[in-house]
From TrEMBL:
Organism: Takifugu rubripes
Listed name of the protein: Protein FAM161A
GO cellular component: centriole; cilium
Biological processes, Gene Ontology terms: cilium organization
Pfam families: FAM161A_B
Keyword Cytoplasm: yes
Compartments reported by the entry: Cytoplasm, Cytoskeleton, Cilium basal body; Cytoplasm, Cytoskeleton, Microtubule organizing center, Centrosome, Centriole
UniProt entry keywords in alphabetical sequence: Cell projection, Cilium, Cilium biogenesis/degradation, Coiled coil, Cytoplasm, Cytoskeleton
Domain of life: Eukaryota
Annotated region (Disordered), positions in chain: 13-46, 212-234, 318-370
Key word ATP-binding present: no
Family assignment from sequence similarity: Belongs to the FAM161 family.
Function summary: Involved in ciliogenesis.
Length: 370
């Protein structure tokens, strides 16, 4: 680190100039400073850097050849790697022999096996019967059965033999008994039919059809009675009450009519009687003008005319006053509304709350704590 370290030239010049100065002892220098009473100007000094202890230690270790643990481990790892490389390089390459199964003709055997499988599949497909070949199967079964036990001539041509007639038919009272059973059966059928007839009802479609048929027959009979007119108009013989209907219509209109309240005129308050008449004032002005000199008369007339013609003007102060009054009235109304709402809310809360108010329990609690 400090191998190529050099001090700059200006610092060397400064140091040589300082060396040329006479050396003054410290005590004498302090005395001179006290005598002078004025502080000397600051003098620049060069800072010579010194090496750190760790750098000195490291350089000392390198000089002596002392190595750290990490360096020792790295060197050991490198030596081990070199040894492994040397051992690998010293080994001679020898190829392994070709395995014996490589020389076997496996491809030809595989082809032969596939050919046999194809032949087996075709044979199986030929032997398997086609769908819906049950007739052939039944025929083969029949042939096999005939081969096992061949049928005899008696089994082949077996004649028909009917069952014998029961003995009850040839009995003496069999005919009368059969007749009684038939009669009893007919009576039961008749009674059942009567019950069903009483309980049955015609369907609605048939009822409507019958009513329409009756109506048609009535209309046909009425038309036959007429003097040969094929069509007879329907006459409404009831005369409606038009006055009553008109009254009902008027009442209905009154109920559903939108009523608009008329504007009620308030009486006018004319204050013309309170206005002072101008006649007297005009006469007095005319008399004053006649009595006064001409110049003064012109000036007074001009002033009086200007005063009469001057319009009244609303100032900003009056506007602000009106706004302040309106604002105070509005705030007063709002405060009254808030007080009213607060009163109503407190009453409802007091009605719904089962606990007592603080003002009621305050004195009692104070007594308890005392």
């Amino acid at each position: 680190m400090w191998r190529d370290f050099q001090i700059p030239a200006h610092t060397r010049q400064l140091s040589s100039s300082l060396r040329s100065l006479p050396v003054v002892p410290k005590r004498q220098q302090t005395k001179q400073e006290h005598d002078c009473g004025e502080a000397e100007p600051f003098k620049h000094k060069t800072t010579v850097p010194k090496p750190f202890q760790m750098t000195l230690r490291e350089s000392e270790r390198r000089r002596r050849g002392i190595k750290t643990r990490a360096e020792v481990e790295i060197e050991n790892r490198e030596l081990r790697r070199q040894l492994e490389e040397l051992t690998e390089c010293q080994k001679k390459f020898r190829a392994s022999p070709v395995p014996a199964h490589v020389y076997l003709p496996q491809y030809a055997e595989l082809q032969e096996q596939q050919r046999r499988m194809r032949l087996q599949e075709t044979h199986n497909l030929r032997t398997v019967p086609k769908p819906f070949s049950f007739l052939e199967r039944e025929r083969l079964k029949k042939e096999q059965k005939e081969q096992v036990c061949p049928p005899t001539d008696h089994e082949k041509f077996r004649p028909f033999k009917a069952k014998p007639v029961p003995k009850s038919v040839y009995a003496a009272g069999s005919e009368e008994h059969i007749k009684e059973e038939l009669l009893y059966r007919s009576i039961k059928i008749h009674m059942r039919a009567e019950e069903l007839l009483h309980s049955a009802a015609t369907p609605p479609s048939m009822i409507a059809q019958r009513l329409s048929e009756r109506k048609r027959t009535k209309e046909a009979s009425t038309t036959a009675r007429d003097e040969g007119f094929p069509h007879r108009p329907r006459i409404n013989r009831e005369v409606p009450d038009f006055e009553a209907r008109y009254r009902c219509f008027q009442e209905h209109l009154k109920k559903h009519k939108e009523l608009k309240h008329t504007t009620i005129c308030e009486p006018f308050e004319l204050r013309t009687s309170q206005i002072s008449s101008r006649r007297e004032r005009v006469l007095t002005d005319m008399g004053r003008e006649q009595s006064s000199p001409r110049e003064q008369r012109c000036l007074c007339s001009s002033l009086s005319g200007s005063l009469e013609l001057l319009p009244t003007k609303v100032t900003s102060a009056t506007k602000k006053r009106h706004e302040a009054v309106r604002y105070s009235n509005m705030h007063e109304k709002q405060r009254q509304r808030e007080r009213k709402l607060q009163r109503v809310v407190s009453q409802r809360a007091h009605a719904n709350d089962p606990h007592l108010a603080l003002s009621q329990t305050h004195q009692r609690k104070l007594k308890e704590f005392r």
